[in-house]
Design goal:
Elements: E1 2-7, E2 10-13, E3 18-26, E4 33-39, E5 46-53, E6 59-63, E7 71-76, E8 81-86, E9 95-102, E10 116-117, E11 121-126
Parallel strand pairs: 2-11
Antiparallel strand pairs: 1-3, 3-8, 4-5, 4-9, 5-6, 7-8, 9-10, 9-11
Length: 127
């Protein structure tokens, strides 16, 4: 089993930045793909970014078009932590942000692809 705990959310103004963290515990050695998703009120959960490990030193990062160029996903394997650096935040980025993980490596961008989820952290961007 894998446990995920997000942190770093908060209230910011448009144009500001936030960094989210997701601490993993349990069978972390088995995790090869991790992602960030978000869910705004009244909307479905959507993919934000995916970190796909290919080897110890090689990985691919994928981003939704809505955040490309503004958000950066990264992973510190030594700390078992996934990050999401969010810059130039917009009011439409307001949502609960969730961390997800799975053991296979791949381009996984849908909710059903991930068996492990965190509890979420709220990000609110005011205009």
């Amino acid at each position: 089993q894998v446990q995920l705990v997000e942190s770093g959310g908060g209230l910011v103004q448009a144009g500001e930045s936030l960094r989210l963290s997701c601490a993993a515990s349990g069978r972390t050695f088995s995790i090869l793909t991790m992602g960030w998703f978000r869910q705004a009120p009244g909307k479905e959960r959507e993919y934000v970014a995916v970190h796909r490990a290919m080897s110890i030193r090689t990985y691919y990062a994928y981003y939704a078009d809505s955040v490309k160029g503004r958000f950066t996903i990264s992973r510190d394997s030594a700390k078992n932590t996934l990050y999401l650096e969010m810059n130039s935040l917009k009011p439409e980025d307001t949502a609960v942000y969730y961390c997800a993980a799975r053991s296979n490596t791949g381009y996984y961008t849908t909710e059903k692809d991930y068996p492990y989820w965190g509890q979420g952290t709220q990000v609110t961007v005011s205009s």
